[in-house]
Amino acid sequence: MVRNAKHDTYTAFSGGLHEGVTKHVGTALSRERAVLGIRKNRLVTIGIAPWGVVAGREDLRVKNKIVSYSGMDYTGSVFRPLDPRHSNFLLVDNGSTGKEGGEHYFRRRMGKTIASYPSSLRTDYYLLFVCILVSFFD
């Protein structure tokens, strides 16, 4: 996908927090983008994160204003910084604070909606879905 982004535009969705698999996905996409000389607008990375666990989220509560976000180290806290290697974020608020997983329902519904988009309407582009499942065993 990253190598093809030299010629086409790709959008990658992943979790938006700077931890676990998402942290590694962001690092890999950023590294490949730099190595291959891909412009940022060719490979759009969208992180979907639960609003209730975003570190420093109060700094993001603004209207019609661009703000600088600096996710600090929140080791040992229920709050997590956003991954800095994503270009955009969808922050999902289910009303909970400090509880992870609030974005799962939204991600499931969004995936189903995109997948069910009628193929008859897709004439100028195609959709490629890649799902990466990672499992850790003790």
Q: Overview of this structure, please?
A:
The structure is a single chain. The protein has 138 residues and is of the alpha/beta class. It has one domain. Helix content is 21%, strand content 14%. It contains two helices and three strands, in the order E-H-E-E-H. It has helices at 20-36, 104-115, and strands at 10-15, 43-50, 88-92. The mean pLDDT is 76.
Topology:
Elements: E1 10-15, H1 20-36, E2 43-50, E3 88-92, H2 104-115
Helix content: 10-25%
Shape: globular
Structural domain tally: 1
Distance between the termini: 31 Å
Biggest β-sheet strands, sense, barrel: 3 strands, parallel
Radius of gyration from the CA trace? Answer: 16 Å
Structural class: alpha/beta
Mean residue pLDDT: 76
Number of helices: 2
Strand order of the largest sheet: 1-2-3
Residues in β-strands, percent: 5-15%
